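Deviation from plan, reported transparently: FNR complex.
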Amino acid sequence: MAAEPVNLNEFQELARLALPKMYYDFYAGGAEDEHTLKENVEAFHRITFRPRILVDVSRIDLSTTILDYKISAPIIIAPTALHKLANPEGEVATARAAASCNTIMVLSFTSSCSIEEVAASCNAVRFYQLYVFKKRDIAATLVQRAERNGFKALVLTADTPRLGRREADIKNKMITPQLKNLEGLLSTKVSSDTGSNLEAYAKETMDASLSWKDLEWLRSITKLPILIKGILTREDAIKAVEVGVAGIIVSNHGARQLDYSPATISALEEVVHAVKGRVPILMDGGVRRGTDVFKALALGAQAVLIGRPVVYGLAAKGEYGVRRVIEMLKDEFELTMALTGCPSVKHITRNHVRTEHERI
Ligand code: FNR
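Because the crystal trials were delayed, the predicted structure below was used instead.
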């Protein structure tokens, strides 16, 4: 394979060659039989285009606005754990790449660089992803730190009352290193001599009692807008709007939680119809091509987030690799807009795609 990858899938292969098997498996793996992991990608393949011709596409504007922040394209960086396993610079390199591509980075709660380090490293617009642990003080402390350090929104990940069963991590006895932002905040040392310690860590920390009423508490401790991540049904989308979230992220956590949850691109329209434009909807899961970005927008998303491709770029080529991943996806998206007859993201409509259920 060429040393300079030409698409996101080639970055995955470079990352596989660059990383110890345990870490590659941690990034690449999904829950149980990995049915949803494959579906997240394959469901995109079943959507085709209804391209329009003879539209002036001599100038194409990819830019969009998410919660008042103008970004260069509707492609933002999803929160993924432990970037130092991919590259010694960790999330600092990822944040710098986000800044140079003029996009948003969502920093994971389980990051390997601290909130302060990431904030000091660049001026990218940053959102902070939150898990709410049994000890509510931990979330409150981290929310305050994110606010103090100029993060612009919170992303509450709500699909993780317990950790999904990731069998590669169990087999590899995957051990998480110390989580930088949680140093001194957890009382017990979470470790396990047998098997992966991820599960032990999650048991000690994740609060399976978290429910909709806790959104009120979260809103009471912060002025930041809150997006909720992990919605897959109209019922939950309506609840989220009712409790006053600023946005919804349709996500199945990169297929790492509940196997046989739907591919996110298949769940997107149900949520879009339920929300009726009241709050912005973003989606992630399986976005690997500019055509995928276009399909998500045509089905009603304002932007997509990318998870694994960013980590693969980081593992293969550090900050430059993350930048290349975003640039490649932007270039492919721009070409798709040209070939479908859409000079700006506002021109992308439901009529530009055909899902598998629609007759030709
Ligand atoms: C994740 N994801 C995730 N989500 C989150 O809210 N907090 C987190 O800490 C993590 N950590 C994490 C680690 C790794 C290795 C992966 C692959 C994913 C889920 C992530 O935000 C996103 O939903 C998916 O990664 C999107 O799917 P793709 O782009 O990876 O297919």
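The CA atoms of residues 230 and 252 lie 6 Å apart. We consider this an acceptable substitute for the interim report.
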